[in-house]
């Protein structure tokens, strides 16, 4: 017969990723991105540990649903401040369930910085501050070995983990349809990705390459990446990740004659509207305000863009 006692207990849902977008009438939009942990405890939960009695157990899935429900129904000012939202979730749990003694809600913020162009904040495009990593690689190959008189010099440079997001002005429609296609057309969606961008320099003269303004090219590549993502006025540019990627690379090639080609890899990090219809709330299509980020699986789009072959090598 068991004689041990439960000294303490708590249970709940962890890593509930919830995103709230606030859309103002003037087009200005705000975003809050959270990872939420909600834990419940109380003496009456002891029997669920010692006797297998689940009658009073509020399912962790219900706790997850509560986070999304409150993200939608609370006034925006009570969601956009993490301390306030955490206390609202805890207060709701304590108020709704008499047998819950304590509710612990921890929120880890996933901050987005608003993109700025000409000192003005962009209304709906954001990025993760200071997360990208710059890198470079030099490759020198003898043209006529073993002589080192002639050399082919390749320098690859770039950055990765530049995380960007925009809450509108991205689409994916009119794609191939067959019996395996279930994805609906998305005329407007959240688009988010972690940018990997690299560019290549090739020459036979190392001294010539070493005089290139590498810092300015790095800054320009990042600037063109962000500007194409957020600001290009042509609708077709935002018809897919592929088109946006092509314009990013094309801009770099046009701005920097020394660059031979540009490679991008853009995983499509999905943010899907959470279906709140079981709770009598509209949150799909035009009513979407609360989203569930989906890390896996993700789309993965790559391309190498270059100038027409001039017979350089």
Describe this structure in words.
It is a single chain. The chain has 313 residues and is an alpha+beta fold. It is built from seven helices and ten strands. It has helices spanning 46-50, 60-73, 76-79, 82-96, 206-210, 214-231, 241-255, and strands at 11-23, 29-41, 102-109, 113-117, 120-127, 133-142, 151-166, 191-203, 261-273, 290-306. Strands 1, 2, 3, 4, 5, 6, 7, 8, 9 and 10 form a ten-stranded antiparallel β-sheet that branches. A hairpin with an 8-residue loop joins strand 6 (133-142) and strand 7 (151-166). Helix 2 (60-73) packs across helix 4.
Please name the defining characteristics of this protein.
single chain, 313 residues, alpha+beta, 10-stranded antiparallel beta sheet
The biggest sheet amounts to:
10 strands, antiparallel
Number of strands: 10
- Alpha-carbon distance between the two ends: 81 Å
* Total DSSP helices: 7
**Overall geometry:** elongated
Fraction of residues in H or I helices: 10-25%
Radius of gyration: 26 Å
Low-confidence stretches: none
In N-to-C order, the SSE pattern is EEHHHHEEEEEEHHHEE
Per DSSP, what share of the residues sits in E-state strands of 2 or more residues?
35-45%
Mean pLDDT: 92
Q: Which secondary-structure class do the elements indicate?
A: alpha+beta
